User: Fold this.
Amino acid sequence: DPTHPLASYALARYAAADRDWEKVIEILSETIERTPHFSDAHKEIGRAYQQLGRTEEAQRHRRLGEFGEAVDGPLLQEVYALSVPAILGGDPAGAPELIRERCRRCHTLDRTFRRPDRSAAWWAGTVRRMQRLAGRSLLTDEEAATVAAYLASDRPDSAAAGADSVR
Assistant:
């Protein structure tokens, strides 16, 4: 599938090898539109803009590429999915303190608490993704289970009070 982020990134790398910088920008602009946090795509499009002398755009994409996320292939996604059950069934009691202390290192919590209710498995998958992005030093598996259980629990007015309660 040429629209998969990894496939389009590979196509852009071929275009870069041919020094077709406009093609790199064309391919990766579409990729970034679909996957805005794909850091490797931002880095490569930044390189293309630099080659074309478009320094401002190059710098903007380089900054976006500094902190983003990798895109995992389907096989790796399956492997990660197998790790979700290990953090299901945690005790949500200590989660607000963990969230205050750890999760806010990387992002604000408004978007987390404004999401509609999700299943425990969905939240566990999200917490696992955060572990992959920030490293296991962010949360141990026991702490990840605590956070996932809390996020999946019935919280009073999680759209408003939940976000304020962990600030």
About this structure: The chain has a mean pLDDT of 84. The radius of gyration is 19 Å.
